[in-house]
Design goal:
By secondary structure, the protein is mostly helical. It folds into two domains: 67 residues; 143 residues, no CATH class. It is built from nine helices and no strands. 27% of the residues are buried.
Length: 222
């Protein structure tokens, strides 16, 4: 084989390797963004909107959240703790009929305490707690954001209007989904939670009973 042929082969191989490296690098970019979009769902779209459509900036923010909170160790609730939180949530739902603003405020405080009890940042660090929750409960964290916003909105003369009450009701309903995720035993809880659980590892009938309780009262709240 002549020297010229060898050189030509080396050039071709080098060119192929360069093209392969470029294609692999391009492939990693969309894959990273795609995985963040799947993980964060509606939170991904919210981050993009907050960054005025700059997806790279939004993805950097979300990637930083995962880096800070992705390996956050969470703790399980003791059965007595779980019962206390469920009782407080039920009481807040019942209070909504006569005092919607107070009920939403209690839901906001309750979610902050419950998240802290599960091992997320303390409720006094609302933004950091919300960011951590968004990593692990991205599809339901907006309910917490909504009750917090309603609770801390400036009180004005329109607070008792029909629109305000409806907004509070919707916030309460949305927040319930996050509450139910936080109050239930996680998939990673140890066997100590399985002794009194159903075959799928969940506490027996607690979730179904809790959801039924709120739905029974909803006609009065609408």
């Amino acid at each position: 084989m002549s020297t010229g042929v060898i050189i030509a082969l080396i050039v071709i191989v080098a060119a192929v390797l360069v093209v392969a490296a470029v294609l692999a690098r391009r492939a990693r970019g969309p894959q990273h963004g795609g995985s963040l979009k799947r993980r964060f769902g509606p939170e991904y779209d919210r981050a993009v909107a907050r960054h005025d459509g700059d997806t790279k900036a939004a993805e950097r923010e979300l990637a930083e959240r995962v880096q800070r909170h992705g390996s956050l160790p969470t703790r399980s609730l003791e059965p007595a703790e779980r019962e206390r939180y469920e009782a407080r949530w039920t009481a807040a739902q019942e209070r909504f009929v006569d005092s919607p603003r107070e009920a939403v405020g209690e839901a906001d405080r309750l979610l902050a305490e419950l998240a802290g009890a599960r091992g997320f940042p303390d409720g006094g660090q609302y933004e950091e707690q919300l960011a951590a929750l968004s990593v692990h409960h991205a599809h339901h964290v907006d309910g917490y954001r909504r009750v917090h916003r309603v609770t801390h909105a400036r009180v004005d003369g329109a607070q008792d209007s029909g629109a305000g009450t409806e907004e509070m009701r919707e916030a309460m309903v949305a927040a319930r989904a996050l509450f139910e995720e936080l109050v239930q035993p996680s998939r990673h809880d140890g066997s100590r939670h399985r002794a009194g659980a159903d075959g799928d590892g969940r506490a027996p009938a607690t979730r179904a009973q809790h959801t039924w309780s709120f739905n029974k009262r909803q006609p009065k709240e609408s």
